[in-house]
Amino acid sequence: MSDSMRVGVVGAGTMGAGIALVALQAGLPVVLCDVQEGVLQRAKQEMERRLARRVEKGELTADVVTAMLGNLRLSTEMAALADAAVVIEAVPERMSLKQSIFAQLDEVCQDTAILATNTSSLSITEIAAQTQHPHRVVGMHFFNPAPVMKLVEVVVGEETSAQTVEAVVNLAEQFGKTPAVCKDTPGFIVNRVARNFYGEALRVVGDGTASTEVVDRLMHGNARFPLGPFSLMDMIGIDVNFDVTTSVYEAFYGEPRYRPHPIQARKVAVGQLGRKSGRGFYRYDDEAGGPPRDRQAFYSSEEQQTERRSALSAERVYVVGDTPLAASLRAWVASVVGTEASDCGLVYEGPVFEWDSAAIAARCTELTRCIHAAQPKVVIAAFAGEPAYHRQALQAVEQGLTEDALLLTSLAGPSATEQASWLARPARVRGFATVLPLPEPGRGKTIAWTRPLQADAADALDDRTVGLLQLLGWTPLQVRDGAGGVVMRILAMVLNEAAEALREGVAKASDMDAAMKLGTRYPLGPVQWMKELGIASVWQTVNALWRELGDDRYRPSPLLRQWWYARKIDVEEGPNHA
Ligand code: NAD
């Protein structure tokens, strides 16, 4: 697109005004249309205010701002868009309204003009169907606030031409944005892959596994999401989030992975909509309001570090497993204790298949022998793979243990109760769940732990578990036992959805990673995250959830299953827009 091409924007509300400003700041002439003159004037004032702030900050000169504002034309008539090379529509989210606007644009604009819609949930193909030239209709999904958020989802309708896609990808880049190209499927990338961040969190609370506060403390303090799912729903508006969920669910004709939750409906019914109504999952109407914050610091002083080192050495912590988590935990323990990783455990590179009985037997013999030699008081186990292999590995670990040793096992897979059932002394087991990368030690880093049903409540091992996790630098939070231990349960469901969207060809891996990091500020893109955790852990967690919870929404994506058997996350790398 040329430097002087005119950009038309239809609708001067929250998004339209923001998009117009983005185009002006890219140095392009803009025509902004709305049916209400007052809205146009307010939009202009808002742009002036934002630009003035940039002048104050020294980012722009007054002359440049004057030139930008001189490039802006306001109009209540669609005819003003006649000379626009591209028009971006941002009117309210109603199919009939969008279709009528596109039919008018088709009449008014040049035959070569690109017609883009900022819809967040409607089908581009259906909008384009009302035009004579559906090949030049495309989605350009900006995020709120448009001048700040870096992502633009470029949504390709059934009939959108390759030239149109290329032109809007270039335009998005000219705007200083990162385009992520995706197919015209419900929710596009972000609103689809993010669904289970909310949906699974609601189920965790709904089935009594953990409270909203604990879920938020884990997803923020352990998994490093900028906000926990409940704090985020309060910010977005519980009603808005519920509407998006319902629309994606209906657009997929009742696919259970997107099923809304009754908690959402109840909150909307009583008007507890989040921050905007003073109350949602949290209260915002008094000073103590808002979501919880973890501030407790552990072992920050030199003295405390020494105390920690000697306490951990005395526990003789030994890490075993076959996952990247096991490798990270072993390195972690070694760095705290101040010794070599090889002294702190035995970690294999990946599980073996359950039919490879010779390899399993060899591993089991070595595991028992090494644990017997190390005489640990605590073993941290993080195995993945099929249940038969996992069971034998854990049994081999137990055979090397002394009577009173504690066995902490990863919940990136079956519940602690299920894993404990494989052992002679099930009451010695506790479950823990954390994601990778491990959080740096320090303030408020949380971790989930569980007690299996075979152990008595308030058993002394509970205190040992809490003490040990604190020694490792975490704030331990107890949740009810279950596959995935909350934090891996929610994350694995997000990753399962990402795998399914990749399988359906919704977007390339690089575009999906860019979209989730820039559109929702995830700490890692889903594909990057699967690689970090290892396919075995992700696959095993989803599979364990499916076996434990039974609902079809947990069925693993066939792609996860195939990657597990192929031992690699095999994604087609596209042009990297990130
Ligand atoms: P908004 O209500 O703030 O603004 C819509 C504007 O469109 C209003 O100013 C209205 O006067 C104008 N309008 C209505 N009918 C018109 C017509 N026939 N011709 C010209 N103007 C007309 O809405 P919004 O939040 O800016 O959302 C606009 C679109 O952007 C929707 O499709 C929405 O789904 C999408 N979107 C919104 C967000 C968000 O967070 N608000 C984020 C991404 C995408």
UniProtKB/TrEMBL annotation:
Residue runs in coiled coils: none
Record-linked InterPro entries: 3-OHacyl-CoA_DH_NAD-bd, 3HC_DH_C, 6-PGluconate_DH-like_C_sf, 6PGD_dom2, NAD(P)-bd_dom_sf
A single GO molecular function term of this UniProt record: 3-hydroxybutyryl-CoA dehydrogenase activity
SUPFAM superfamilies documented for this protein: 6-phosphogluconate dehydrogenase C-terminal domain-like, NAD(P)-binding Rossmann-fold domains
Ranges of residues in domain 3-hydroxyacyl-CoA dehydrogenase NAD binding: 7-185
Keywords in alphabetical order: Oxidoreductase
All residue ranges annotated as the 3-hydroxyacyl-CoA dehydrogenase C-terminal domain in the record: 187-284, 486-570
Enzyme class: oxidoreductase
Region Disordered: start-end pairs: 281-305
This protein's pathway: Lipid metabolism; butanoate metabolism
Biased composition (Basic and acidic residues): 282-296
EC code(s) of this entry: 1.1.1.157
Cited Pfam families: 3HCDH, 3HCDH_N
Family under the similarity heading: Belongs to the 3-hydroxyacyl-CoA dehydrogenase family.
Official protein name in the record: 3-hydroxybutyryl-CoA dehydrogenase
